[in-house]
Inverse folding.
């Protein structure tokens, strides 16, 4: 793999490579942390086949807008021929400047942290609402429940992992139930604002979002549900209800044009959690979307089965507590 990174690097005027480290946490793309010989730091990323060059146009337009709004954004490095990506054996690779941030630590979780994250997402939505731009690139079926439901039932049920085969109908029924009335407030949204895509300052404050591959024109409830879903997955003594309430107060401060209510936030949370359970269940058979961890699982099927079970269990825990 480092041979490919060297091939990518040779198409940029960035000096020599001193260190390369593969980063974990991404569900789709391969990401590498690179230090060059003058100690400048970069991110090198290999985009999977679901993405195309139109994405790179979206990336720069949205980043330029948000930068003008005062956000810290990923900055793409242009290659020697002036392109914002390079092709290696027909695969898209890109390089952007590393953004300084502190690792998120569970020990700093408190009510204020949930408020701050809600405020950050609300502020992002407020900034994005002023950009009249329809992204050129869209991942097929992304955040489209009907697409996933149809795909799920096209797969022969016996091919699904036995542990989740009987849960399929319940996942679909609940997904249809909680997705109702969540189509309002359509605008440009992030598409994947989970906590792994939030950067934290040295003072442990969330201050920006990364991962610009999923921006889309859709309901803000998709982002709200996905962000909340990642917060409910954290190992924290604070109950689900209080986490949601703090998030809502923060969100409304960041985006006062939206009177986000508890019921809407809860429905969005349940909807996205179920959607992820269904997507991972589909990919346990289809194996066409998510990357997988070959060090801890014997197959993509087993990893995606574990992921699907994780989110189905999370939904049931949320549903029981709230």
């Amino acid at each position: 793999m480092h041979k490919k990174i060297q091939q990518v690097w040779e198409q940029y005027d960035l000096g020599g490579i001193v260190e390369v480290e593969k980063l974990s946490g991404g569900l789709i793309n391969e990401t590498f942390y690179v230090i060059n010989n003058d100690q400048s730091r970069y991110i090198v990323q290999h985009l999977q086949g679901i993405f195309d060059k139109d994405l790179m146009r979206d990336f720069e337009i949205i980043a330029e807008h948000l930068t003008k709004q005062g956000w810290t954004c990923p900055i793409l490095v242009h290659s020697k021929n002036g392109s914002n990506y390079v092709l290696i054996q027909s695969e898209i690779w890109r390089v952007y400047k590393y953004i300084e941030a502190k690792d998120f630590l569970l020990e700093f979780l408190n009510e204020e942290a949930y408020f701050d994250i809600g405020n950050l997402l609300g502020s992002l939505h407020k900034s994005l609402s002023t950009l009249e731009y329809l992204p050129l690139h869209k991942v097929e079926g992304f955040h489209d429940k009907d697409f996933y439901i149809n795909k799920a039932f096209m797969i022969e049920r016996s091919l699904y992992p036995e542990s989740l085969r009987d849960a399929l109908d319940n996942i679909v029924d609940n997904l249809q139930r909680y997705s109702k009335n969540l189509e309002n407030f359509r605008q440009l949204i992030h598409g994947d604002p989970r906590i792994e895509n939030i950067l934290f300052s040295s003072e442990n404050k969330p201050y920006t979002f990364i991962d610009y591959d999923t921006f889309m024109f859709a309901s803000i409830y998709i982002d709200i549900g996905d962000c909340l879903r990642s917060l409910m997955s954290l190992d924290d003594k604070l109950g689900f209800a209080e986490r949601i309430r703090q998030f809502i107060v923060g969100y409304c401060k960041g985006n006062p044009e939206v009177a986000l209510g508890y019921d809407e936030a809860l429905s969005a949370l349940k909807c996205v959690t179920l959607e992820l359970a269904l997507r991972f269940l589909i990919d346990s058979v289809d194996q066409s979307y998510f990357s997988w961890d070959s060090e801890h699982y014997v197959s993509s099927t087993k990893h995606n089965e574990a992921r699907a079970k994780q989110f189905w269990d999370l939904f049931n825990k949320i549903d029981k507590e709230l």
Residues 2-97 form a domain with the Phosphorylase Kinase; domain 1 fold (CATH 3.30.200.20). The chain has a mean pLDDT of 92. The longest strand covers residues 17-23. The beta strands are 17-23, 30-36, 41-46, 86-88, 91-97, 186-189, 198-200, 206-209, 216-219.
